[in-house]
Amino acid sequence: MEPLRDRFGRTIEYLRISVTDRCNLRCLYCMPASGCAWKPQEGILRYEEIVTIVHQMARLGVRKLRITGGEPLVRRGLVSLIAQLVQLPGIEEVALSTNGMLLERYVEALKAAGLSRVNISLDTLDAAKFSQVTRLGSLETVLRGIHAAQRVGLHPVKLNCVLLRGINDDEVDRFALLTMAQPLHVRFIELMPLGNPEFFHPDRFLSVADAKARCEEWGELIPVDDLASSGPATAYRYRDGLGTIGFIGALTCSFCHRCNRLRLTSDGWLRPCLDSRIGVNLRDPLRRGASSEELEVLIRQAVDMKPESHHMNLAMRQDEFETMCAVGG
Q: Is the pTM of this model over 0.85?
């Protein structure tokens, strides 16, 4: 069967699946304090519909899955979905992105279900600032989740840190030095014009180049190329470090030329790019009884829509924003 390949020669092997747009936090850069208007429950893909879509996409060459949200662990029965996805022919890896608030509760069940690894959002190591940034979160709870993930063997454990000038720019070295003592894989991510338009401002932007320069003050960064550095990050390690430090420069260091992913939103739209509002509706055809051949046609349409690169920039207007929880993180 012809593999999924876009108009620019990129082979699509990776699908990010948003299982919900709901979240138990209200991070400053993601959404307003009052939250967002959630999608109606009847419009959200049922688990059996997700499995059907992934089964078809695996037949077309998709090998890696990442479960996202919103916060995926707030949706009931997620462990059972992961167990089903892991068993699909052709699927080699199922990973999870989470804010960590519920991770300790579910981590053993997730591991038993076959989850491969986990990414945990962690933008500060200061408890007071953590409460400020997340509005509803507990740093202690997330740290326990991180330790639990390490304990059960969800390796590599990645920590996603969004760079926020004036908030956590003084902690770059603290995050980097974590990788010296522990097998943790820190990923510094540039603030993107997605989420809460009331928060985003160029003055809050810190480039990955600036973050990398601060990390280099503590020692030489040696390039690495392994499982922990797969994806959009350019990764390094300190000479004696147990973990790695990655830099994801969505605005200053485009990685679009090697993008191999599609996104499935919680309400069933297959989106070709994080920065794209176009896509293909898979939910409605599925509910009308679409055949696997019809699904394949729709999936290939989404692949053909994939742009050469995103168009995010620091000067984007508020009316151009779309919340990350709506797209899928």
A: yes
List own/partner pairs for 192-195 with CB under 8 A and 24 or more apart: 192/250, 192/251, 192/312, 193/312, 193/313, 193/314, 193/316, 193/320, 193/321, 194/274, 194/275, 194/312, 194/321, 194/322, 194/323, 194/324, 194/327, 195/27, 195/29, 195/30, 195/31, 195/321, 195/323, 195/324
Task: Give the chain's residues under pLDDT 70.
Answer: 226-230, 253-254, 310-329
3-state secondary structure 252-314: CCCCHHHCCEEEECCCCEEECCCCCCCCEECHHHHHCCCCHHHHHHHHHHHHHCCCCCCCCCC
d(CA 273, CA 307): 7
Is residue 90 classed as helix, strand or coil in its secondary structure? coil
Q: What's the DSSP call for residue 227? A: G
pLDDT digits (tens, 9 = 90+) for 187-233: 999 998 777 777 878 889 999 999 999 999 999 999 997 554 457 88
Tokens of residue 51, six digits: 């499995």
d(CA 71, CA 316): 26
pLDDT at res. 182: 95
Nearest alpha-carbon partner for 86 in 108, 58, 119: 58
